Structure formats: C-alpha cells, structure tokens
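User: Quick sanity check before I run a bigger batch. Here is a single chain. Can you write out its predicted 3D structure?
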Amino acid sequence: MTKKIRNETSVKAVFKFQPNSSLKRPLLGTHVPAGFPSPAQDYVEAMLDLNEYLIAHPQATFFIRAEGFSMIDAGIRPDDLLIVDRGLEAADNKIVIAVIDGELTVKRLRIINGIYWLYPDNPAYEPMQITADLDFIIWGVVTYIIHKV
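Assistant: Done. Predicted structure follows.
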C-alpha cells in the first residue's frame, strides 16, 4: 500500500550521503572486554572506511536526525543520526522512515494478517494502523543509529 506524497514541505533535516568521500580510521586487532580489563594487543588490524562499513547502497542512502522519544526502547534517542537505506525492502519488524500525510516518522513496521502497522518502541505511545485513507509511503529502512555516549 504505497501512495504518492502530496506535500513534502515538512520533510526536514535529510542529509544525502556523499559517495565519493572516505573516512578511514584504524581498526585495532583486538576486542575490548566489557568485563575485567585484559592486556591490549597494540597493533592495527586494518584501515576501516566507515562509508564502506556503514553504507551498502551509496546512491540510495541518506541521513536524518531523530526527534522525540517514541523509539527509545530501540535505542533511538532525540538528535540521534539515523542512516537510512532506500535500497532495502521494508519488511515486517524493520525500523523504517515513513511519510504519513506529509509528515516524517520513524517507527517499527509490523505486518499482521496483511495489515500494515507502525509501532513505536516505547509503551507510552500507541501503534498506528495504516489505512487506505492515509497518504503513506515508506522512505527507507534504518540500518544504523549514531549517537553520542
């Protein structure tokens, strides 16, 4: 159930991925224990390009900032940077960026008995059933969340 968007004036803070850029940083050849410390192995395993690691479909990828608390239990906090891939299929239980009546939202897509729902990952918010009278389209699938610690 996909419809054409009538009004995209409320669509803000979308950043297009720059496919020609590179951001290589050292990937250390050791794991960091989350328990008791152990002696670190002090060597670089490889140079890791974050663009190659985080972005599977460069021409179909964009960045957008999250707002609000409806996805807090999925680890998405206000002002987090979301990496969104339009080249992936929006399937059941994926976190998606959707446009409903011209407004962006990030929610978990649920398909239950053939009915599409957008579920928040916060019990304080209610799920939304996608009905034929809504102007609805899925913009992409969230693949990574970047936030400050």
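Residues 1-13 have pLDDT under 50 and may be disordered.

User: Great, the batch can go ahead then.
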